């Protein structure tokens, strides 16, 4: 399906074309998208939230001040959730408020808080569309990166004929499909490791770390949104796989290595997993008894998956992570060179930092460059990191 797993925030503003939003919701879902609907007050005069709730499978939001909805999924969370915002119909009033940067209802607030691409399907009377105020607002929104889909020309609900009709739902779905399929990683195969590994010491105990998998899963989602085919090799986590991503579950570093090698060749490899550096030399066949006051477990080094991928003759563009408590940049630079990586994302770790946190901050290094990605939600950082990678991966021989 063309929009498989994509999160589409469908904004509906007040205009007669709002009735087409029910068909649009159904078409988006048929194409595989997950749809959350936000309506302006005006839109509810043309179509009921209940209709769109039934069609989208999720409660529809109208007000910024709805405590129940805010508790279930706050508006900032909803803004982060979206892979794209589609506003259909986009009325003259809504476009004016967006152009002015207003946040006086839920939909305009979400648009300001959202970093995902925005698509507007204008729909209004032909004279309103031709008005210099509307044209100036449309131009302002385009300059800021919004994409206008339509309007089309033809007979209008007001009885006139001209430009101002909302594009048909299938045409809008097709535009979104084009957007996602020409992403910067379209046609690329990406393998990503995520989460911790567990190194057994006996049948019931293991050595592991605090990685939740969030950073790696966010990267898998961002790479998928950039058009890539994504294989996610994951240690044990409590996270659902992003839709449209092939997830391979593993436990130990040795199993992760095996799964990664099976998944190769690929165009891009990102090692986000917190792979245990050591494993027990011998896994006790039975549960170890507490027979003495101290217990020594001999550990042996695990293979370095990242370095092994980077050393292959058919090496992909290889991106590592560096998790450091101190001398962040020195250690990261050392890993970049020693493991022959194309890029490394360094993050400071320690109490309340990076591991098992919703936020992170990264310093990204490559041979002749550096970029700070300041503290943000991991999904936001993942998008930024994928953009940085995409700018360079095409030059990779
Ligand atoms: O999962 P989260 O809770 O979201 O937390 C994210 C994170 C902190 C785990 C992530 O941002 C991160 O830093 N991942 C790398 C953790 C790590 O093991 O760093 P390292 O500096 O020890 O390893 C350097 C690189 O070598 C990493 O890309 C690692 O995946 C790789 N490696 C390490 C050892 C090994 N045996 N094989 C490897 O491939």
What does the model show?
By secondary structure, this protein is of the alpha/beta class. It is built from 14 helices and 19 strands. The strands form five sheets. An eight-stranded mixed beta sheet has the order 12-11-8-13-16-17-18-19, with helices on both faces. Strands 2-1-3-4-5 form a five-stranded parallel beta sheet, with helices on both faces. A two-stranded antiparallel ribbon has the order 6-7. A hairpin with a 5-residue loop joins strand 9 (199-200) and strand 10. Helix 1 runs parallel beside helix 9 (169-181), helix 4 packs across helix 6 and helix 10 packs across helix 14. The longest helix is centred in the C-terminal third of the chain and has 16 residues, at 378-393. The mean pLDDT is 94. Residues 193, 195, 211-215, 253, 271-275, 277, 302, 304-306, 320-323, 335, 347, 349, 354-356, 378 line the site of ligand PMT. Ligand PMT binds at residues 193, 195, 211-215, 253, 271-275, 277, 302, 304-306, 320-323, 335, 347, 349, 354-356, 378.
